[in-house]
Amino acid sequence: WSVTGKRDVLDLLFACLLPSCSIHDPDPDWASLTLGVFVCQACSLLHRSIPHISRVKSVQDTWETSEVELMAAVGNNAAKAKYEQKVPAFYYRPTHSDCKLLREQWIRAKYERNEFEFTEKQEPYSAGYREGFLWKRGRDNGQFLSRKFVLTEREGALKYFNKQDARDPKAVIKIETLNATFQPAKIGNPCGLQITYLKDNSTRNIFVYHSDAKEMVDWFNSIRAARFHYLQVAYPGASDEELVPKLTRNFMKEGFMEKTGPKHTEGFKKRWFTMDDRRLMYFKDPLDAYARGEVFIGSKENSYTVLAGLPPSTQGYHWNHGITIVTPDRKFLFACETEAEQRDWIAAFQRVINRPMRPQEYAVEAHFKHKP
């Protein structure tokens, strides 16, 4: 006999108990008949890329008895217990909003490579040392050239070399201030990774990629592992749950806005803005190595506010949808091209302003106030 329709299938699969996709949807519409797990539509497309491992089927289709029995015998909870039994605390678990690369490699790591069943398969990103070549964008000419990178937890640094046989690195990046976030659209490569760090307390950007997807995700998780072990030493009493959110971070928001200068009489100029925690940075080009300027966004308890619109006295041509950020020292004026962009930027600023400042953030604020 056979079963047709999602409701009938899910009713029969009561043994699976609230199946949910590990990345995306709490009410998935697809299933992997070979793995015995429910997946969302987005993940079903990724499962199709590993047909030798996973064969997917819609719950809206006609189901054979044997297929229903397989799903009931396995289910998402049992599959998770098997395929995710040894996921390192630092390993990045993607969400539905992450790029395709992260989601696909998570699925392949679990079901194709069985990385979380055998710890020896985690060596590429858990050894505490990694070296290899990545394509790095040149700061001045914008060309991507092959560069040797070395990540060493013992030295607490990520280093890269401009020449293959160079003894001294071009840059030594401390793990303490290191961040990495995938930026495929901005970099123009599906494996594009943006690495940021602080140099003289200003943000520096490096843009890299590798042609091999697994290689690039292994680099990303190696950085997370190094950050994790650094933070375990820096905060010996902290739990894994407290440390993991600090390993890497995605930017709160990015996009073009227009800005004017401190006197508010200068013309508005179009700039690329990046909101990274409490640092609002602006660049002439999205792939610039250094920001043209940075603005610290504090909390409402410290007299920071965000307002829709611009002061009536504002001069010069600008986009129609203004934003004013009020700080203890001055007002910053921005303009957005659309109302939707204005709304999203205000929401991002408001989230930061509503969050009380941590003790270490006061030192960052003081540095911004004393910048020349």
TrEMBL record:
Residue ranges annotated for the Arf-GAP domain, each copy included: 21-124
Q: Give the UniProt keywords, A-Z.
A: Cytoplasm, GTPase activation, Metal-binding, Repeat, Signal, Zinc, Zinc-finger
Q: Which CDD domains match?
A: PH1_ADAP, PH2_ADAP
Supply the SUPFAM superfamilies for this chain: ArfGap/RecO-like zinc finger (SSF57863), PH domain-like (SSF50729)
According to its UniProt entry, this protein's organism is Nothobranchius furzeri
Does Zinc count among this protein's keywords? yes
Its name, as the record gives it, is: ArfGAP with dual PH domains 1
Q: Give start and end of each PH domain.
A: 127-228, 250-354
Quote one Gene Ontology molecular function term.
GTPase activator activity
GO CC annotation: what is one? cytoplasm
Q: What subcellular compartments does it reside in?
A: Cytoplasm
Kindly list the residue ranges recorded as spanning the membrane.
none
* Record flagged with keyword Metal-binding: yes
Question: Mostly located where?
Answer: cytoplasm
Q: Which residues form the signal peptide?
A: 1-23
